[in-house]
Amino acid sequence: MPETRYFNALRNALSNERLSKYKRDGDLSDAEAIGRYFYNICLCEALYPALQGLEVALRNNLDSAVSNRYGDAWISPTSYVLDGYRRDDVAEAIERLEREEKGNYTSSDLISALGFGFWVGLLSKNYETGNTHGTDLWPFLLKQVFPNLERRRRTRQTVANFFTKMRRLRNRVFHHEPIWHYKDLEQQHAQILQGIIWMCPELCDTLKLFDRFPEVYRNGPTPCHAKLEGLLDSIRSNDNT
Fold first, then answer.
1. In the chain, where are the structural domains located?
2. 214 with 50: CB under 8 angstroms?
């Protein structure tokens, strides 16, 4: 039957292991898990603008603040500003850029090539006053990097905890992992926007013009199930003609 072939094809393309993460006890057919799978895609898509804004604002604010304190050459494989882990990250990014761009890259390209983990790593205690593993960044740069974070909460630990949590969500979204079952996803979305406000309220206001997450989350998986059911109806109809 065409409907059976359709589901078999999807299972082969997506894998039973992946689809199993979208199943619930009591499901009557594969269509329910597949609907949730595509709902998850819609949620990830809807979170992309906010997550991208958070990551880009963090790396540019950090680069500006550290450059002002230690000079523009602070990002290098031999930088005295960075600890060994971050210097290795820089060396790998440069190697990748030289291979892909044949050496024709700018400092902005290097900043973009460094992953979110690199920038979140700069918020670690290695860079706090009194620690011997890295250069002192905190608390000196907190106000410059996060000018709109309330003074009483403006600590390295506060921002490190926040960005570590947001990095976990970001990695799940960017690596195509399930987030549809998160009970606090709406809260995490609001936290992302708040984190952007800490750095640039204007960016947050602009992102909201294109932020579809509230609508997608409010509608839930129903529209995805409806579209899938429409496709199945078409398959069944063609099978009967």
1. 2-10+28-240
2. no
